[in-house]
Amino acid sequence: MPRGVMSEEKIQRWIKEGRGSGAGPTYKPWLTTDDIPATSRRTRVPSAKFGRVIHVLSDIEHRVFLLAEYFPSVVEAKEQWPIDRELTQRVARKLGIRHPCYPYTHIPAVVTVDLLLTIQRGGVLKTVGIDSKPRTALNKGEVLAKLQLTKASLAELGYDHLIVSESQLNRTVTNNLIWIRQAHSVEKEVTPYPTFYEEAADRLYQHLLSKRFSASSLSRVCQEFEEHAGWAPGTALRAARILLEAHRLHVDLRLPNIPDRALREFSFGVDEGSSRQVAAL
Q1: Quick check: 74 and 47 in contact, CB under 8 A?
Q2: Residues 132 and 213 in one domain
Q3: Of 168, 187, 218, which residue is a domain's last?
Q4: Best CA proximity match to 173, nearest among 60, 66, 262
Q5: Shared domain check, 183 and 147
Q6: Residue 246's closest CA among 186, 181, 200?
Q7: pLDDT (tens digit, 9 = 90+) per residue, 201-210?
Q8: What is the 3-state secondary structure (H, E, C) of 61-75?
Q9: Same domain for 197 and 103?
Q10: Is the pTM of this model over 0.85?
Q11: What are phi and psi of 176, to 5 degrees?
């Protein structure tokens, strides 16, 4: 039997370890990037919003997560979330389809959904499962059967289910989100003091607000401000990305080349930017 084949003992051990349980910073995904072959595209994404590292197992999952994280209405995200096996086996029998088993075994597989989101709107909480799949994979019978099983199982729990392929993602929007997140500090980075960038963002915000009707580009205004402040090149634009991620500064993310957009195309504050944010995503 090949090395690494799943066993019932391993499943029970993972359950005891708390995989698939917890909430917020304490949530543990059923599958981590260490459980997936190195040949697969996998990424660990530090998330300040959810207080932990998110394990995504494909480029599509990564981009879908970035969209989910950016929305203030998404209050919880659980990646690689396992559905109870008794439920999925019961639903499979009801649907008259074969329940998936682990390779080289007859052990019923733990069916997972790529991302389980809790969304709060108007004081009402809603749970939605999202599976991110390449469009080519949606032509495969076993993939469609698994998605059918996932959808029906989540429906039993009162959850919605969405399938997202790369053709449904706005590449410009997700590229902009990747650029915005590059403002995060990196491990062992040396800064003048621990709260330097937070304070830089506050100072820059007030300056941008005073120039809000300017035809100058964001990058130009940032460059002028950092020269006046005596900051290293690139500091102010990094602070601007911090403001964008915090929803204090807003722009239509469908637009390319955000640094080159005129400052008058931006809006300020959560309330003022909320409608533009929804339109962009």
Answers
A1: no
A2: no
A3: 168
A4: 66
A5: no
A6: 181
A7: 999 999 999 9
A8: HHHHHHHHHHCCCEE
A9: no
A10: yes
A11: -65, -40
